[in-house]
């Protein structure tokens, strides 16, 4: 690969050109990682190490090396600072991974880098909300430059073959990804894709750099129209002209499958017009019937290609079908694809190494391996662990957690947490930190979640979510789960909620990135927003195609014009104008409002029935105008509760939203300008219903959801979760929130050792005690032994490492059980009966902290 200026006659040095274009600042945007490791380790022991990968894997972020001023990169720029520097064609560029450290080398005499490093977290400021607000503001600002550097890739530089050039304006591409795109555009005289790919290393690829002038704004805004090759969803190129009407394309088949899947999965909705006339006993199919084994095998084959996966150059159909047609793949396959592609190249490389280790171990167990492989020779590196230390301070834990996430949100390394003044390190304290923060996020006084003051009386007298016993109403506990509280978007209460939702986004993304579990009882409606809707919301999206304007088709345009005129005659436009809708508009329906706010939803349903009766009166051709007026004046609300009928005007409603709790610190929110002065009447009841529903499900939670997405996307893109249903996302985030086990599960998946066997009386008493535990006691036991109150998907069978029970030596009836949480290691004394064992075990679960035992 070579580097060239767009003008051979230009005498300006490359370094000077970069500096004039402010390249250091510009190219920093293209980097995948924040910091660049030292280059010294790469030169150690060169005689024993070979580069087993192609140099073309180097990301475009390698260009940032050219502008470094230290001597480490002197060979690249021709010498130390102060001398005229030029490009060295012999210099080899290698991509750096800030989340990786050198692989462990077991050979004698080798020095290995410690995998865990300490990271200093600054103390929380007096106003952490302002710091997050500044972070959000910076994220919304598009940087401007007086001059810009644009890049393109040219090939093949071969005689007799015309050169082709493509823009490198997509910051998410690696060089290898660009090479794959470019090779398909080159006319070698051979037509098949496979033959072109076999010749991928024949051309010389030249990176062309030039200064962007005037309207060349390819770096200023990565809008869908500016991205080369990719569609608006970053996927397959599709022709803008329609295909032949007699041919059935792949997109048509996929769209048909999507419609069939929606009809099948909507069977529970008895109000659906698609379902009303169908015999559901015959039409309901298992979702497994829609799974494609061939596509599943093909997807698994693609992600097992090391070069393609590590360089982020998977075929576009992989991402497209995962998000548009997730029913084609089982949950396990989609989760596998998610884990190996969502978290950057460092995590992908470690995933590949882990898969290779599993494969080698499998062949050794079966006796197929004839020799011992030196696994360190095939390792690029190990994943770095970064440890932070925070105080176990209940009052300031959330503020410290925000500082941790602000510091670590852009890092791809694994986050570890240690509590100050405690000896415990590793997985146990880290899981405890996540559990404590999850409990803090459920606090009622934060004003984040929808709640009702009347619900406090129905809560249990005390509640312990890991922070000790709390009084009723301390946490938001609702049967439907947590849902954002609608707030006036320009209020101080909303500003506080926005700060917390940004933190929640980073927090949940870190949970997924590091494979943790948190016990947060989210509502199904909120998880719908996290998934960016489901397949029913996205059914009308064309598979892999750019959205085509109907104006391009004169026939469609004419038909739509005629229909629009008829619709305007029958239903004149409303008096109020629609504001700009948020990105999640239309995802939530009235059924979701019924789940999260049933009282308000029932009232809206009564208003809807009143509106329907009004419309029937107005459309009745038999009634005279005077009769219609009298009929409208006699309309009254029909409630589900027995009592006198009520006219709408008697309720004295105005265009305002009244909060369900005093915790939000506001009395009402106007649904329109001066809404408190506008009365709700039979004439404008429809507008009131629309505005109230919109405030509850969209406009009242808009800033909160935008902040959540912004925080989540600091770790990885929220769009990656489009491949999953709300229930699947709940399983990935929270695990099994209602842990259950049977005697067979405990005997099969719990390992008694060092003094206990599966037939020991002490161990059998332990099993009996676990079987008698209530739901909350099971969660407390899991929190005590594993650091998380939930079980992974699959229950005890998928708990790794397995729960190990050993006999605690020199311990009598008065001693208590203790644990090594990191390895799920329970030290249990031999008690004389089950009652004593139960009392001691439950007492131990209430103890907090990680100390030597």
From TrEMBL:
CDD domains: HECTc
UniProt cross-references to Pfam families, sorted A to Z: HECT
Span list, region Disordered: 25-55
PROSITE patterns, sorted: HECT (PS50237)
Gene Ontology biological-process entries: proteasome-mediated ubiquitin-dependent protein catabolic process; protein K63-linked ubiquitination; regulation of signal transduction
Residue numbers annotated as active site: 822 (glycyl thioester intermediate)
Function (record text): E3 ubiquitin-protein ligase which accepts ubiquitin from an E2 ubiquitin-conjugating enzyme in the form of a thioester and then directly transfers the ubiquitin to targeted substrates.
Name by which UniProt lists this protein: E3 ubiquitin-protein ligase
Species this chain originates from: Cacopsylla melanoneura
Record lineage: Eukaryota, Metazoa, Ecdysozoa, Arthropoda, Hexapoda
